[in-house]
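During the reporting period, we have paired protein sequences with backbone structure tokens. One record among many follows, to show the layout:
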Amino acid sequence: MAGKTPRQMALVAFLQAQNCSMYVGSWRNPASAMDFTSPEYYQRIARTLEEGKFDMAFFDDRLAMPDIYGDSFRETVAHGVRAVKMDPSAVLMAMAMATSRLGLGATYSTTYYEPYHVARLFATLDLMCKGRVAWNVVTSLNDSEAANFGRKGHLEHDLRYDRADEFMEVVMGHWDSWRDDCMILDRATDRFADPDKVQRIDHEGRFFSSRGPLTVPRSEQGHPVVLQAGQSGRGMQFAGRWAELIFTVYPSFEAGKKQYQTLRSAIANAGRDPDTVKIAPECKIIVAESESLAQEQREMVASTSRTIDSLTLLCEVLNVDFSKRPYELPFTDEELAAVSWQSLRDRVIATSGKKNPSVRDFVEASGRGTVREGPLFVGTPTQVADQMEAWFDSACDGFVLSATKVPGSFDDITRMVVPELQRRGLFRKEYEHSTLRGNLGLPRPNAGDWRAGAFATRPSEQKIA
């Protein structure tokens, strides 16, 4: 009897269609390229990632420039604090044209877009990429985003997720519009498709109404892979119901082991099999031929961060203007309850050990805008792979890798870390499938599966795309 296939690590590149990576200081690194408004910039990254057999690259996004600190965008523009933000779906297509196997994902908000628009856009992208697309679902939390869309403020935390749940029901319903075998394409009988296998959704709900049917047939992978990054209790509940790949942030290895089990429980509580969902924490890798060279690089990378990066980015996600507040003054319980990003607030409280942290505590405990934000694996290829393997064994199914220099971080990982992971049998040597879903080892959904709970079926009982 053939042996069981070894569990394989998922590798995802975390990208931004902007002037820097998630680490703002990356644009200041002498090794970073500066042609980030050109298609060639993203195509170079895409080819490198495909050479490294990465599962996917996906784009984070926010729909406003950080401008809450000092009630101005001037510091953002002056210091390049994620000042440029292009539409990731267009950039995704530039990368798709340079690759044939690399999965590609883009962020679109359930707060400011309409379900029909998102369903049509991503279904079309998936066809044009031959089944390689993912949608990163976010519930926008920033007041500046609200202002750009004519709103006075963002929705309350749990209400955003209530709206997002219904948004997903509408999108998934539209993706069910066409059955896989509905096309006939018979010129002789003038039969294009079977109308009995195309349906409306006729949705009428609390937040949305949408008739359908969607005008885009299903793709090779059924429908785009769904990513989500819920961290709070309500966010985990949402991710447990909908996500096929959960992007998460672990403050430490020990905390990650607990959070991994919590997320798997949320998936099971939603009636789904946790083994059909990938959970991947964000991390940064600084790798070099020797430990001393890696540590030198780490010091250089750390030197590119600025305090203004932390302040600007914290204000952006908390919707609080730190410029008007004494640096050491603790926040009140009421002020803490009102912040937008609850999981970040909770992480700062836990890390600082203070029930009522100050601005200083938020800056220092969060690591926001610094190389300290999130796990950082530093060392030789062997040392980095050792750390990744330890996490993979008990805390995750793969990693979402952020860059400290672009495209250099991905070049280094592909050249040095991937071969070591392959040598250990932890990562593929070649792509085995044509679709993103197939390469992730996710089941191909049939139309209506999400309603019937078929995602709870064991992977071995489902067709891999």
Summary: Confidence is low (pLDDT under 50) at residues 454-464. The radius of gyration is 22 Å. Residues 306-368 form one domain. The longest strand covers residues 278-287.
